[in-house]
């Protein structure tokens, strides 16, 4: 599909580079130079982010400050070699393609590594991963225990009756008792 646009891409690449930091007030909206500068600005903004991606809603907030076109999404979709647009739910995210090798971020800063580690520890599985949830692992253990058929009859489970005070749903905790207990601990 890219072969159709090869001539347009080459022509676009040959245009003079416009700095994303230069004043763009003199450029006419919709011109090729204006679009080239808009791409340079978006490339620069995405390269400054930790994960080389942003939600497009966040980018539109800075449209006036960056002197960007009204239809930013058109630029992202038009230049699919530089940007990758992903839809999740009703929100679009734009990725800088040079920052990724497939689904993996190439240069991970320490904060991104920490975030991934935290997600791993909290049990976040991500999308389309075959990591079982906690309830799945419990079910697997129960099945293994029942299916093991080890023949060990010495293992028995029994219930003991508790004759002590029974806590009912009507019982409430007295706040004064709890407060007094804390005050006694503070005195010691």
TrEMBL record:
Any Pfam family matching the protein: PORR
Location of the PORR domain: 4-123
Molecular function GO labels: RNA binding
Any coiled-coil regions, as ranges: none
Highest taxon, organism lineage: Eukaryota
InterPro entries membership: PORR_domain, PORR_fam
Protein's recorded name: Protein ROOT PRIMORDIUM DEFECTIVE 1
Species for this entry: Noccaea caerulescens
